[in-house]
Automatic annotation (TrEMBL):
Belongs to the short-chain dehydrogenases/reductases (SDR) family. It holds the Pfam family adh_short. CDD domains: carb_red_PTCR-like_SDR_c. This is Short-chain dehydrogenase/reductase. Keywords: NADP, Oxidoreductase. One of its GO terms (cellular component) is membrane. It comes from the Eukaryota. Its EC number is 1.1.1.-. It is an enzyme of class 1 (oxidoreductase).
């Protein structure tokens, strides 16, 4: 291994050790704004990173609602979590199915009155290793971007007013960075429009993903200047990141007591079904930043992108 690679590896291992340590430090009483009455919803929580986020949030004493598109699988996952001694609730939720979302919202209203935290974790990716097929591009964009957006729109009206503010955390990916050194959209004007909050709009994000999907259909996407790695997935997460900033801007005028903070994060490359268990970190470590963002006591943080508890550029 070259000197540079070795130094990078050492730095990464040190950082992972720091995060493991941070995870074990209990929050002090003055930081703890939540209680068992605080309700957190996690999408796609039947396995992988979502399952871990649910487990860790319950470990901090919140009421966690694990959601799963297949209810039997969700119930099994909940049973496994209950063995840890914490209490969970479970409900069916397919983020692509309007009726499933409506039924979930009604159930939340009746049983809990509202929620405090929404973790949009559910997602799909159909490529592994060096593959870059766009066979399932529509499914990827629909689930990762439109599914996340569906949930944000449906849940904002049931987010409870509180002094600490409600929170939305979107599990995203560095692959969707607009201005990263690699894997970015080639069109500098489009990048600028998506970066600038004055020009960023839901319509622009929608137009961008639709153009990509149209090019997939026309088989011209390869010369379209899109990110080169896991193209469909990167486009979908780029849209999630842009939408996070947009919603943060729209929500920032809410009065004190009705604040909602929204951020996104990249969990790293994680040993889950999504990577064929080829990642380099465990779901437990990957969940950490999502849990931390859900529980932040610094209320001013919104519209940001994080990795390993550190802010990174979009
Ligand atoms: P998994 O494949 O293990 O889990 C994905 C979860 O999303 C499953 O519970 C799955 O349900 C659920 N899901 C998919 N589609 C829907 C839907 N329409 N409605 C409801 N739930 C759905 O993946 P990970 O745990 O690795 O991924 C979790 C998140 O982390 C995703 O958003 C992913 O993009 C992101 N991420 C993951 C990385 C990694 O290295 N693993 C890297 C960067 C980001 P079901 O079991 O029914 O399929």
């Amino acid at each position: 291994m070259s000197g540079k690679k070795e130094r990078n590896k050492e730095r990464r291992e040190k950082r992972l050790q720091e995060i493991s340590l941070l995870r074990t430090i209990p929050y002090s009483d003055h930081q703890r704004w939540w209680s068992q009455e605080t309700v957190a919803v996690v999408t796609g929580a039947n396995r992988g990173i979502g399952f871990e986020i649910a487990r860790q949030l319950a470990g901090h004493g919140l009421t966690v609602i694990l959601t799963s598109r297949n209810i039997s699988v969700g119930i099994e996952a909940t049973k496994a979590l209950q063995e840890g001694g914490f209490s969970y609730d479970v409900h069916q939720l397919d983020i692509l199915d309007g009726e499933s979302i409506s039924a979930f919202v009604e159930w939340i209203k009746q049983k809990y009155g509202g929620i405090d935290i929404l973790v949009n974790n559910a997602g799909v990716n159909y490529n592994l290793g060096f593959d870059n097929s766009v066979e399932f591009a529509r499914q990827v964009v629909d689930t990762n971007y439109y599914g996340t957006k569906n949930m944000i729109k449906a849940m904002i009206p049931v987010m409870k007013p509180s002094a600490a503010g409600a929170r939305i955390v979107n599990v995203s990916s560095r692959l969707g960075r607009l201005n990263g050194r690699r894997n970015r959209i080639q069109d500098a004007t489009l990048r600028e429009k998506l970066t600038n909050l004055e020009t960023l709009s839901e319509e622009l994000i929608g137009r961008t993903v639709s153009r990509f999907l149209q090019q997939v259909e026309d088989e011209t996407w390869q010369s379209g200047g899109w990110p080169q790695t896991f193209t469909d997935y990167s486009v979908s997460k780029l849209a999630v990141n842009a939408y996070t900033r947009l919603v943060a801007k729209e929500l920032c005028d809410r009065p004190q007591g009705e604040k909602i903070y929204i951020n996104c994060y990249c969990p790293g490359w994680v040993k889950t079904a999504m990577t064929g268990w080829a990642g380099n970190i465990s779901p437990e470590v990957a969940a950490d930043t999502g849990v931390w963002l859900s529980l932040l006591s610094d209320q001013a943080i919104t519209g940001k992108f994080f990795a390993e508890r550190r802010e990174i550029n979009f």
